[in-house]
Predict the 3D structure of the following.
Amino acid sequence: MTGLSSALATAASWQGLVTVVLGTSLGMIIGALPGIGPSLGVALLIPFTFNFDPAISLVFMLCLYQGAEYGGSITAVLISTPGTAAAACIVQDGYAMNQRGESGRALGASLTASSIGGLFSAMVLVILAPFLAEVALSFGPPEYFSLGMFGLGIVSSLSSDNPLKGWLVAFLGLAIVTVGIDPISGVTRFTGGRFELFEGVPFMTALIGLFAVAEVFNMIDQSSLRHEVRRRLGSAFLSLRDLRHIMPATLRGSVIGAVLGVIPGIGPSVAAWVAYDTERRWSKHPETFGTGEIKGVAAPEAANNAVVGGSLVPLLSLGIPGSPTAALLMGALVIHGLQPGPQLFVDSPEIIYAIYAGLGASIIAMYSLGQIAMPLWMRVVEVPNTILAPVILGLALIGAYTARNLMFDVWLTLGFGVLGYVLKKYRFPLPPLVLAIVLGYMIESNFRRSLLMGEGSPMIFMERPLSLVLLVVALVSMCLPLLGNLKRHRITSTS
Amino acid sequence: MTTVIAAALLLVAIGLFWGSGLLPDAADPNDVGAAGFPQLVAIVTMVFAALLIVQTLKTPEANRAVGRTHPRTLFFMLLTLVHVAAIPFVGYYVAVSVWLAATLFLLGSRLGALLVPIGFVSFIWLVFGRGFGIPLP
């Protein structure tokens, strides 16, 4: 109780309040800027916290993390440029809602769902941390591979128009992921001798190109560029009806995000896509997803913020970070002389309570600041496309550069932009390509690790129950829509 | 054009398969090696590409483009390429200012061509240059 009262006193102090507001605001801005992201933001700002009280330092970084996971959705909705990899998932529906004059509704859904997701995972962290940590420990390479394949099973549902096109671009994504140093043997593959490709194709570079740059080219194509209709802003507040409508999706997304966040190495991107697909399958009108369905914004946003609390579960319980940003938080703990793991609960309970308080405060701050700032964000839609298009492209290219300070990445982004533009023009869906790039490394490296564990036998995937279940579901998800589409085309050709 | 894209992807897959064959074998016999996964991806891609080519030849009307490419889009792409190529020679701030002014003029916003480069460059300098300390070319 001493630790709890100390944490509450810190949270209520003026330093605590300033920390929460500053951390959350900076987080939202960092998340909105493409190419920065929560990991880089936390890494850049950790040095400023060296002289802070450890509890204040952790609260600041948690607020930054939480704010950044939401911030990525702002630019995703307003200018089709995901600020974070996880926000790529909501571009389709969020930007479509923006185009319909419902940017306020989209941003409101994103903010509300992010807040609920964050709150849910904070409760999960407080109540279920030790139990969930045991579950996380049971995941080995076969389970990670099967989870990756399960994630890839989403491809079919992301390409309802023509699953064959979806699968083709998904495998193009997997081919792209093979560029770089092989994860097991260390052999360099398909880099053409360029050191910039040794780590593979950076996926933020690919995302910015495929979504932002391609969309800018598309904007310039539109014949209404010179005589465009001014888009309505829409209301900045979510109606009760919308709130009731998105609540089940938000809760499902929160559960998915919290559970997947617990598993080290999964991260918010995968959680967001799994939540999106789950919601689409659950829906009575799956055909509306991708055309401006509000649940297509709410579910992934709830999931990606729920990952924040989930990723702290293995960190606090076992000393294993659940995400790259959690790894940086672990570094911050070590810098302050604290050892993450079960002993932290005994030696420094005030730090644990400070983390809990920080999570809670970050959600309140994020929602409040998000609502206050929303009318400002929404002013972006009043800017004519003639000005918006080049500015978005400028921002996208600087975002591509800042990831590694390499001009090569800018060229790569432009290349992906042209690729995305051409693919979209001929109705190839982009989300499967993005999903494959996100999952590809996890799939290949864990496939090969599993084979090494099983001494070359693929039966290892069948012998582990969780792995078997995930694989069967993945196979069914992949094959059914594909067979259905081939059958439809055969019937069309015959008639 | 969809057929062309599918054919291009088929060629990429063939190249991937062939390139993978040049990679060294794995030291551990239980590992598929550096070539295993790319070759598997290449084979599946070839199958999907071939199926799509057959499908588009049978139903060409279902695979037409969404709208046409406006000539200004191509010119905009060209200007963007030139601006990125110029950055290492003239520096980021000069290149992006000239590019923004040129593209806004091309898109019909004359006032924007004067004001937006100043505002954009100032924002980038403040946030990325000073705020995050990221050195720009």
